[in-house]
Amino acid sequence: MDIYRFFAKFPAKRISYTKTREYDFFTNHNDLLRKYTRYTPFMNVKGNFDVVRANLIIRALENKEAIEKCQSNEEVNELLKTLPYYEREGEKIFLPIYDKELNHILLTNPMEYKNKEEKDFLDPFDTYGPSLFNSMFTSFVLVNNDEHSYCYLDYDLDILYFINEQGRMDHNFVLFDKYIKTVNISKNNLMGRVSPVVQAYLDGNRNKFITALQKGEFVSTKALDMLRVMYGIEKG
């Protein structure tokens, strides 16, 4: 058993992802995924990460429909000031459902862009990779990254997501195990405390990862002792 599945067995009590703001948004707006069949498979959500991915596409489709109601370049340019976007290499991407070239046309000559067909749609996660989540399309907070992996913190659910170069999740890690009393769970300086945990993950150092969990107060003494037995780590 790997360390991620170990902690998944002992999560602290927390709200279900179906009770979050992101899930509410999904249930109220997923008709767009049904309308544009290229993205209909994203309606099948089995957890919070699926919801976040689906909502990212929904928000991009909402941008598309709002832009296509405009009647002039000036009207589009005013609208763009209000819409969520993703920034890549210094240029704003308002429609990650299209490639960078089409997004560039949107910025330089909006009316030329209008009414692109569904055949031009692409998988935004394949195209833009893990940095896409570091945008106004999600509520994730970037903790750290290297050339192969990005780690994001979901403050609502206390989950770390490790996302690979294809924009897919390699691992998620639920902070705080069930053996920590709720009254002892502190959210103070959460970003500062998770940073060493993420760095240890990126370094591929399991012992350092476990130590960072302990110092950050994300793991109970009971769970820590079980981990030490599992991996043969002496108390230090």
Blueprint (SSEs and pairs):
Elements: H1 3-8, H2 21-29, H3 31-35, H4 48-67, H5 73-80, E1 86-88, E2 91-93, H6 100-108, H7 110-113, H8 124-128, E3 141-145, E4 149-154, E5 159-164, E6 169-174, H9 190-203, H10 206-215, H11 221-231
The CA-CA distance between the termini, in Å, is 23 Å
For the largest sheet, list the strands in their spatial order.
3-4-5-6
Output the number of helix runs: 11
Rg on CA atoms, Å: 20 Å
Which structural class do you get from the secondary structure elements?
A: alpha+beta
Major sheet attributes = 4 strands, antiparallel
β-sheet strand percentage: 5-15%
Number of DSSP strands? 6
The oligomeric status of these chains comes to single chain
Order of helices and strands: HHHHHEEHHHEEEEHHH
Please tell me the overall pLDDT: 89
Shape: elongated
**What's the helical proportion of residues?**
40-55%
Structural account:
The chain is α+β, with helices and mostly antiparallel strands. It is built from 11 helices and 6 strands. It has helices at 3-8, 21-29, 31-35, 48-67, 73-80, 100-108, 110-113, 124-128, 190-203, 206-215, 221-231, and strands spanning 86-88, 91-93, 141-145, 149-154, 159-164, 169-174. The strands form 2 sheets. A 4-stranded antiparallel sheet has the order 3-4-5-6. A two-stranded antiparallel sheet has the order 1-2. Helix 2 (21-29) crosses helix 4 and helix 9 (190-203) packs antiparallel against helix 10. It is elongated, with a radius of gyration of 20 Å. It starts with a helix and ends in a 5-residue tail after the last helix.
